[in-house]
Amino acid sequence: MKRYSKAIYWGLPISLILAISIVLHLGWINAFDNFFEGLVHIVPNLKGLMLKITFLADTKVDLIWMVLIAVILWFRKQRPLATNLVLTMITGDAVGWVIKHLIQRARPVQHLAVDDGFSFPSGHTLGMGMIVIWIIMVLLPVVLKDRTKRFWIDFLLIVWLVIVMISRVYVYAHYPSDVCGSVAIALTWVGVMQFVFEKIKQVVNK
User: Fold this and answer.
1) For the whole model, what pTM was predicted?
2) For residues 108-140, b (16+ Cβ closer than 10 Å) or e, as one string?
3) Percent of the chain, pLDDT > 70?
4) 172: closest CA among 101, 104, 109, 126?
5) Are the C-beta atoms of 120 and 95 separated by less than 8 Å?
6) Cα 75 to Cα 181: distance, rounded to the nearest angstrom
């Protein structure tokens, strides 16, 4: 329960600070975005690679990853975990859609035609963020007891998530604050859902 609370305590304030700053067009957000956009684009001619990465983290592909993981867990008799993942992802995507349409931030002017709709939060990053954070916080502590192996899997998953974030900024689909906000929302939502599941389990077991 403690680690889920920490996820909410860290994720929620960051999500709110970024969302409010974007809505109010605060100066520090522009400075933040300009700095990290420049950093991301230091290495030129990576658009082809970044488009491949962004495809692997597409919202539809995220749902395929979700289904694959859930099916494997279901047939391995880990049905509560499978249900947990599906509910977390579906409700999280719904929350992301609501936030996107409440804030209605325009995308960067250089964005590709395929990237339509609003910019905050990034659906790609939110979906992949929820999968990565869920695996790290929920799945691995249950199925893998070796702390060293868990550390390296956690590390690789975080590196992959950062690469996805970079790819979305590189192709001008989102601002850096969009992808950072998406990870914060993902962290918050995974924490909220696990808190809810733990409370339900306590009630059922009484």
Assistant:
1) 0.92
2) beeeeeebeebbbbbbbbbbbbbbbbbbbbbbb
3) 97
4) 109
5) no
6) 35
